[in-house]
Amino acid sequence: VQLQAFGGGLVQAGGSLRLSCATSGLMFNNYHFGWFRQAPGKEREFVATISMTGLHIYYAGAVEGRFSISRDTAKNTVYLQMNSLKPEDTALYYCAADRQWSRRYEARFYDYWGQGTEVTVSS
C-alpha cells in the first residue's frame, strides 16, 4: 500500500494550494481518508476527513470554510483544496487511510500514511 502526498509549496497569506494524495495497493472505495498536519514543535492534528462514499465530510474548526476535501474514485486520489491560507496553516501535511469511520479524528488509528508534503504560508 502506498499513499503519496504532493502539491505543497510556499504561498503568500490569502493564497491557495491544492494537495493531492495518490493511492495504490488498496481498495480505494473501502477506505475513508483523512488529512492531518504537523507544525514544528507541535503534535500532529486533524484537518479533514471524507467517508468511503464521499457523502460525509468533517473539518477541524480552524480550517472550516477555507479547506475542502474530496476524492476521485477513477483516479484513486484524495484532494485537499486550501484557500485563504494563513501563516498558522504552515505545517507538514499528511494524508492517511483507514477503514474504521468511527475513529476518523484520531491519527493513531489510521492504518496507512503518506510521506507528507510541506506547506509554508508567508505573511
What can you see in these coordinates?
The structure is a single chain. The protein is mainly beta. The chain is about 0% helix and about 50% strand. The chain contains no helices and eleven strands. The strands form two sheets. Strands 2, 4, 5, 6, 9, 10 and 11 form a seven-stranded mixed sheet that branches. The N and C termini lie far apart (about 35 Å).
β-strand number: 11
- What is the CA-atom radius of gyration, in angstroms? 13 Å
Helix content: under 10%
Which stretches are poorly predicted, pLDDT < 50 over at least 5 residues? none
Shape designation: globular
Q: Which sequence of SSEs, written as H and E, runs from N to C? A: EEEEEEEEEEE
Largest pleated sheet: 7 strands, mixed
Instruction: State mean pLDDT (0 to 100 scale).
Output: 97
- So how many helices? 0
User: Separation of termini?
Assistant: 37 Å
Residue share in β-strands: over 45%
